[in-house]
Write a structure and sequence with these properties.
Elements lengths: L5 H4 L13 E6 L11 E2 L2 E2 L3 H16 L14 E3 L7 E3 L2 E12 L4 E6 L1 E6 L19 E7 L2 E3 L5 E3 L3 E7 L12 E9 L10 E7 L4 E6 L1 H15 L28 H4 L1 H4 L6 E7 L2 E6 L5 E3 L3 H4 L15 H6 L1 E2 L10 E2 L3 E8 L4 E3 L5 E2 L11 H4 E2 L15 H6 L4 E2 L15 H4 L57 E2 L1 E3 L4 E8 L4 H11 L7 E2 L10 E6 L9 H10 L9 H16 L2 H15 L11 E2 L18 H7 L2 E2 L2 E2 L21 E2 L1
Parallel strand pairs: 31-34
Antiparallel strand pairs: 1-28, 1-30, 2-3, 4-18, 5-6, 6-7, 6-16, 7-15, 8-14, 9-12, 9-13, 10-11, 13-14, 16-17, 19-20, 21-28, 22-27, 23-26, 24-25, 29-30, 32-33
Helix pairs in contact: 2-14, 11-13
Length: about 675
Amino acid sequence: MDGVDRGEADRPDAAAAARHGPRVRCGSRHRGASDLPVAHAGRQPHLPATSVKGMLRSAYEAVTGSRFGVFTGHDDPLGWRRIADDARIIDRDNGMFPVRVASVDEDADEIEVDLYEVARLPAYDVPPVTYPSGERPRHGDPVRARLVRPSMRNPRGNQFRGPWTVTEVIPLGEGNLAPAGPGERVAAGIACVTGRNAIGKTHERLFFSTERPTRVTLHGQCKRWRDLMKSYRDQHEDEIPQRKDGKRPDEWRADSIGEVELSPHIHDKERARLTRGTLCWAKKERGDIVGLYPVMIPRDVGGVPSDMLPDSLHPASAFDELSPADRVFGWVAPEGAGTRPSAYRGRLRIRNVTCGPATTTEFEGDGLPLSILGQPKPAQGRFYLADDPDRPDVPLRDGMPKGEIFQGRERGLRGRKFYWHHRAVADDKTYWKQPKGPEDPTQRLINDKGFREYRRPREAAGGNSPVPVLSQDGRAFRTTSDQRDNQNRSVQGWVDRGSEFTFTIKVRDLDGTELGALLWLLTLPEDRFHRVGLGKPLGFGSVRLDLEPSGTSLHRGDVWQAHYRTLAGNLPAPNPADWDELRAAFEESSRAVPELRKAQEAFLQAAAGLADLPVHYPRTRPKKLRPGGPTPPDPRGLSYEWFSQNERMRGGEVVRGRGRSLPAPGEAGNNPLDTYDA
């Protein structure tokens, strides 16, 4: 074993003589995913040494409580979508109110706004209210309008007076309207037109006032507005300036996701600016305006992830801040840090990655289409945020109101991200075999263990209709042909289960704790698996690492000194008992830090997987699907439906049993996420 005193190991001029480290066999228990053919080196599949090193480093960072090697792109506030209930005017001091910007001082971050009342302006799928010329009011038009409160019925059939609604409108200064009759109002106002940017939208809005509007001065809203507009742009960057199928951002096609218009502030830079005359909405809480928004049911911005990460876990900015993973695997100063020294050469190298024995499965034609893998959604705070910055292992309380998640007391991050080993199906040959015939491979349960979650369902019969077309027995979705678009990738082959890769790890100048942590990772219990490569959420890349004692040479510094001093004979034979001692010492030191031990236990739980539960994105169950069995993957790709159902409100509160947070690893088996009826 190769170890030196910690003080010497931390010096940049520590001895650099190469010494042989453990030789490791990497056995493939799953297959690696790629959007290219299987990478080969000669005639054998190729596993890059950088992939192996990255796999080990991410695990090493977690189990040693080290700093993140990389933590970039997390300096913007978290963006999230408010719920429909937030658009209500609860009373004069609480709710969403229409305002017009009177002045903006960017330098002082000061804004003056005029408070208005609001009326509905019929525009779509109802007889529209137009000017006498037949033209529709445009955004920002000053008008004079007749308003009434129509009689309406609630879902229970009870009659009530609806909101103020425009029944007649003329451009301001181009004539007069008859005086208001009983139950009517005639008022001057400004048309606020945002387009058909929501499913089922029938009305635009008129901001009006029968008296001089109240003016309010706000502070600190300029930067917040810019952050909010950036959140909108980031959310829709793939749809600007042109959406799928060549559709313009301001073009409406149908009342379904992806077919409604984009709101003007998303694709029009002028509408996104906060200037004199801007029409927007102000949210009041207890009489104070807490934010300005471009639409009634808007996105919002909350805490900044980089502020939630403890300083001790941010990437090291200077040499004297290096953590164990930085010292073992290497470190480069963040760009622009201007520190010297600006890099540290790690003391671990991956060498001689070879493959064999190994086999591959190849797919003809366009390959096998994988399931859609969405990017992390910061808006899902129930999955990514912890209730206490000092307790990343504790999820948010189930049922917590959405606004409280992002704007309540200080939050923390849930911890490091690892993917579950798909234990229930890992060794099922049928699960990984592609059946022949016309039946969709994703719609039938495999040996009572799960559906083929890694494969994208074929296109839904009936397209993206809200009412799904089901199979004859009512237990699955009816589909047609393979779906291939820019939402997913296809693979032309994979490395088969049971294939082996062998590589050598060379280490130097590791102290006992650092080496003990590495040995702990290289000798996990028999039923624990590391994850390497792409497609890990779909079950690919689970690998078992085995240390080969006969090919391993690890010695302490004094043994190497004696060897080089005499140059006589061979080094002593490796002693696995010494490795056990180092692992035990690392485990003992970890027990003294409860937070570190919890992180190691969570890592081991994810590496083991769940025996009785499938691993997939949470989903909803169409009401027409025959009850009594698990829900197959929805070919319409409506993964957002679960998150919408999870936020359902009733009477101003989250519906009982909803508002679920991602369970902690130790609770996942006993408290899995529910499948909601949709």
